[in-house]
């Protein structure tokens, strides 16, 4: 029998916490409510959220950084023209860094197309690029002879691998959850605005009647007169 009140209290506590944000929205006056709706609509008109824009900038940084390292590697190993012809025209899977550069280009094109142009809200595109990058780099490190070519034999594969997984983490833990939270807030605000529109406007001061204030002793005098009338009639 004692468990029933505890269960009822737990249920009430859960319902109160689940509707806390909705109560907060309803407690806002109409002016603030409309301001929030306009701010959310302004974000929608921008077309892309701030956190998604940051993600796209990081994807661009990934491509530029890998390209910069590859160009430095070309210069270190005998000049850009000679090494470029050796790695691109005479491509060799076991000794060339050109495929790591192409892998960065692949990540850039897929992620920008998916999350900047198409504005996807799913993780399948980043999962594809990260899986392809990880599998290719692992195979290249195991089969190739990059480790015999100096520091760049370690740097380019490791940096490409790390950047790909940072992109995955950023999208999965920052971009998608934050956008989903903003969308839920927009739905709550819109629901609150619709309910606010159904509520009639507040009563004006002219619709209330307040009688004039009476003196403190007048009420007591009237009570005495009412009590004396029956005595006088007798």
From TrEMBL:
Residue ranges with Polar residues bias: 10-20
Xref: PROSITE patterns: MENTAL
Subcellular location(s) of the protein: Late endosome membrane
Coiled coil: none
Biased composition (Basic and acidic residues): 224-234
Disordered: region residues: 1-20, 200-234
Membrane topology type: Multi-pass membrane protein
Residue intervals of the MENTAL domain: 48-218
UniProt entry keywords in alphabetical sequence: Membrane, Transmembrane, Transmembrane helix
Stored Pfam families: MENTAL
Membrane spanning stretches: 55-76, 96-116, 123-142, 148-166
Signal peptide (UniProt feature, chain positions): none
InterPro entries given in the database record: MENTAL, STARD3
Record-stated family: Belongs to the STARD3 family.
PANTHER family on file: STARD3 N-TERMINAL-LIKE PROTEIN (PTHR46121:SF1), STEROIDOGENIC ACUTE REGULATORY PROTEIN-LIKE (PTHR46121)
Protein name in UniProt: STARD3 N-terminal-like protein 3L
């Amino acid at each position: 029998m004692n468990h029933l009140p505890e269960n009822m209290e737990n249920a009430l506590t859960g319902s109160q916490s689940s509707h806390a944000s909705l109560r907060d929205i309803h407690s806002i006056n109409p002016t603030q409510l409309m301001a929030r709706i306009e701010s959310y609509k302004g974000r929608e008109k921008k077309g892309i959220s701030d956190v998604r824009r940051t993600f796209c900038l990081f994807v661009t940084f990934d491509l530029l950084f890998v390209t910069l390292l590859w160009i430095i590697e070309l210069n270190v190993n005998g000049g850009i023209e000679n090494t470029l012809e050796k790695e691109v025209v005479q491509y060799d899977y076991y000794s060339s860094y050109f495929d790591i550069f192409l892998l960065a280009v692949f990540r850039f094109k897929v992620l920008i197309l998916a999350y900047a142009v198409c504005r996807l809200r799913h993780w399948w595109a980043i999962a594809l690029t990260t899986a392809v990058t990880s599998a290719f780099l692992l195979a290249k490190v195991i089969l190739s002879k990059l480790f015999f070519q100096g520091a760049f034999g370690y740097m380019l594969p490791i940096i490409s691998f790390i950047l790909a997984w940072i992109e995955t983490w950023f999208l999965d833990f920052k971009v998608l959850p934050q956008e989903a939270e903003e969308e839920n807030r927009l739905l709550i605000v819109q629901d609150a605005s619709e309910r606010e529109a159904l509520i009639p406007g507040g009563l004006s001061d002219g619709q209330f009647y307040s009688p004039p204030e009476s003196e403190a002793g007048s009420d007591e005098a009237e009570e005495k007169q009412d009590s004396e009338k029956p005595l006088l009639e007798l």
